[in-house]
Specification:
alpha/beta; 11% strand; 209 residues; 33% helix
Amino acid sequence: IDNGWPKERIFDLGAIRYYRLPEFLKEEIQWNSRLKKITVALPNTKIEVKELLLMLKQAFVDKNICTFVLKPHISCPIEGIIKSINFEYIDGKFELCIDDSLEDLLISSRALIVTGSTASLDGIACQCPVIIPRLSSRVDMNPLSGISDGFAIHVSNQDELINAVTSIVNSEKSPVEFNKVKSFINEYFTFATAEDEYFLRLERELLNR
C-alpha cells in the first residue's frame, strides 16, 4: 500500500513456498538412505529458541544417538542466545546450518523437531516423522496437533524427547507411511497442475474481490 499498490490487489504470498512440496511426493524416500540426523527447525521468537536449545542441550549433551542440525528462523538470529546459555556446537552432535533449504535437510533426515511452526508440513511432505516439544513459553499451535495419523509425536519433557529420538533414529523402517503422507498433503493443500493454471487461479481470485 505504501508503494502505491491498491488494497484490493494485495494478497498473501506466504503459501507460495509450499508450491514445491509435490516434488517430494513423487516417490518414496528409502529409510535406509537417510542419515542418523535430525533437523531442528528453530522457532521465530527468542524465548522459544532459548527453551528449545536448553532442552536439547540438557537431554543430549552426554548422549551419542545422532546429529542434530539446527536450522534458525530467518527472522530470529540465534548468536546471542547461543552465548547466553553456553550452548556449544559439537561436531557430530550439534551443527548449525544457514545456507541449505529446510527441504534439502529434511530429505536426508530421520526426523524433524519443531514447535508451533508450519515447517511441520514440510516435514511430512519430505516423509519425516515430526517431534513436537510442548514448551512452557508457548501455546501449542502446531498444525499437526490433534491429527492422529502417526505423523507427529508430542513430548513434554527431556525424557520423552530422548525416547522419541532414540526410537525414530534406531527404527529399521520409516515410522510414517508414504501413502498416508501423500493423501494428507494433497488433502491439506490444493496444488495447481501447471504454473499457468496457478496464476490463472490467482487472477480469478483477485477479480472476485
